[in-house]
Amino acid sequence: MRSLEHTWHSCGRQERGGAAVTPSDSPSFVCSFRKPASIVRRTIGPRHTQSAVGSRRSSFRWSHFVAGLEPLKVLSSAAAQMQMSRWVVAALLGHSPVPPAAQPAASRSRSGSLCAPPSSPASPEDVPRSQHGRVSSQAAATPPVRGSSDAAWYNVSLEFPSNVRAPHNYAEALHKSLLFYWAQRSGPMPVKRLAWRSDSCLECVGDHGEDLSGGYYEAGGSYLKFTLPTAFTVTQLAWGLVESRDGYAKVGELEEALGAVKLQGGLCLLWTPEEHALWAPPREAHYITEEDPGSEVAGEVAAALAATSIAFKEENATYSAELLRHAKEVYAFGEEHQGSYMDSKQPGLKDHAKHYPSSGYHDELAWGALWIYLATQEDAYMQTALKYYEMLQSWSGDNYSYDWDNKAPGMHVLLTQLFPSEMMPYAQNAHRFFHAYIPGPDRTVHMTAGGLSWRSAWGVLRYSGNVAQLAMVHSTWAYANGDSPYAAALFNYGQSQIDYMLGHTGGRSFVIGYGKNPPLLPFHKDSFYSYINYPTRGQPYQLQHDDFHDSRIPNRFIVYGALAGGPQADDSYEDSRGWCCAAFSEVAIDYNAGFQSALAKLAEYYDGLQQFSDCELDLGWDHPNATLALQPQWSEGDCYHGCCGKRVRSQKREEHAQGPRRRRQARSEATSEHEPFLHHAHKHTL
């Protein structure tokens, strides 16, 4: 949840920042920083204040063995990964030639972190489906491991299609989600893909000369780089690459997805003592040190580095090894010097803790150790992960959300894959977690009339997207463990949440630039005030403030793929940039992370999806102030960025329903001469 304290910035995103490491002999890491008085810091507010009533096959092999525990010899290549997403759920019901539960553990294969299907999968075309086309939830030929008393609610029908023909263009949604991460880039742009975004933060240098220009700005309402949610975003995206690599490859997005993770992963490499790096601009910074620790930050960064290491294992073994080495170093610091930044003695971190609260760090220490284990198969890290996981059993935190602050649900899912037994506490904990969301007698999380799990007011779709990703990942374990109805319920539930976001129910999409009636006024400053269209530049603060928050002018540029915060508990949504609606209309990088990974899983499962292209998107190049000399000239055969020989329509696609006409009107109302990139900000207090 976010506070209503925002940075107001000019067009350039010049002054931004984040977290880092001091150049002393003993490593210390920054959790946050304070900007000078000329800029008001944008922070995260308390999370609990509003409670909720040609595919490419991976050859990477995983070997799972835990010292002191019965070894689980589940070795395999990830060649079955694409098959898993395409047919595992399709084959859930009565179509398993070799019941997974009957196989010895040593013969079960695993792809990435997925339990792979039997060696002779059924084809998707042979799978029985309901009249709605969704995965049927009739009884399976292989009896579920779970008792029959639990099985009745698995048959709850979710009214959406799940057949060979996708109900939505998941390839388009995936393409646009990745484009959103371009809109949030900091530093020099390798290519000017969006006319309205330029190089930024070029002079962002640490106290010791470190280049801190790269990475992502965390949200549409700020120009800052917060470590904890950003690192969690990287972990989620990297996990999605490990789980659904073939989904990305199938629709031509693998290279782009790897680049999106590498951009921030490279900045995370600055978290090493020998490089004396700061993840912060040349401003007053506040450090996590031995005396003022922040184990939750170090643990999540270690997880992000380790997960990214796994994702790059094939493409760049040297880079992968470098990431893993740094993950171990960061983790060692976080574990050796335990404590939370919530208890910091520094005034700046005390202030930070009020706005960006952490509920504990044991989950991050467990999470980081587990991801390092998955990357190394070193038993010591598994033992460490289990040690901290046990501490979570009495944790008083919110165990029914999965986000930047709570990693416990992700631990449930990963540990269940490693120890696939109903008798283990990991599967039981995962079972309780998902039962809180999936329709049934044990559901505790509010579900709207439209079918959305409404977890919390601020950024509700972030929670739904994260749980959707977990549910679809966990469905593969349920299938491999012989619980076909449960697996079907998990997968169909996950898809129902993603389809809701894409506009399947309720008459509107919540993804900017996608589908029917998407938001036109997202809380995203750069797409409203761009450096090529900033009509109030130099005007008094209050005028700019009111223009952004109170005007009904649609954002002048389309921030494609950004997932809005979401609807209210009754499915209603007010398309507004006002403070009244910031919780629902703001966009952020962590909102898209689970959502995008779930899209990749759906892209794996469905046939008939084609690679999407920038060709007909309105990227701002028709604006009179756009510098056409900077417009990329894609090769004729580039079907990702260019038109690949296709005839371009004279009229851009109407991504926003009536949006193009309204945006053209907004542009005509805001005629401003092209001005050079400015490096100034307006102070304000809210």
From TrEMBL:
Keywords: Carbohydrate metabolism, Cellulose degradation, Glycosidase, Hydrolase, Polysaccharide degradation
InterPro entries assigned: 6-hairpin_glycosidase_sf, 6hp_glycosidase-like_sf, Glyco_hydro_9
GO molecular function: cellulase activity
Family: Belongs to the glycosyl hydrolase 9 (cellulase E) family.
Basic and acidic residues bias spans: 1-16, 666-678
Organism expressing this protein natively: Apatococcus fuscideae
KW Kinase (keyword) present: no
One of the GO biological process terms: cellulose catabolic process
EC category name: hydrolase
Lineage: Eukaryota, Viridiplantae, Chlorophyta, core chlorophytes, Trebouxiophyceae
Name under which the protein is recorded: cellulase
Location of the region described as Disordered in the Swiss-Prot/TrEMBL record: 1-26, 100-147, 651-686
The EC number(s) this enzyme carries: 3.2.1.4
